[in-house]
Amino acid sequence: MGLPVEKAVETVATYNDYCDRKDDADFGKDPQYLVKVAQGPFYGFELNVGAFCTMGGLQVSTENEVLDDNGDKIDGLYAAGNDAAGLAGDTYGPNMPGTCVGYAFYSGRNSGKHAASYTKNLTVTE
After folding, report:
1. Per-residue pLDDT, 105
2. Which of 61, 68, 109, 122 is surrounded by the most beta carbons within 10 Å?
3. Do 41 and 70 lie in a common domain?
4. What is the C-alpha separation between 51 and 98, in angstroms, rounded?
């Protein structure tokens, strides 16, 4: 991989120190999410620059309800992230880095919120 081992060891030691102090001086990570890198085995891989997102996907409402071919919602069916990329319509700009990830976070939360609300109104039958 060409990883400078000494630098990696130093970085892990610094991070583990942040965990001990419950203070991430580099990135301000919330202390409750600081977990020491302490026990292996550890694996790595080379990552190249790239982009991934869909230009299409399922058409969804503003509540992330999946729409049928007529534009009518399909009760109880929600989609999020790249599966719901249809929310962006024909205006999604692939040259805007990070927009795909941001929408994945937002749409997942939005789908969950509206799906939970939907289930509160269901009648259970046996």
Report:
1. 81
2. 61
3. no
4. 9
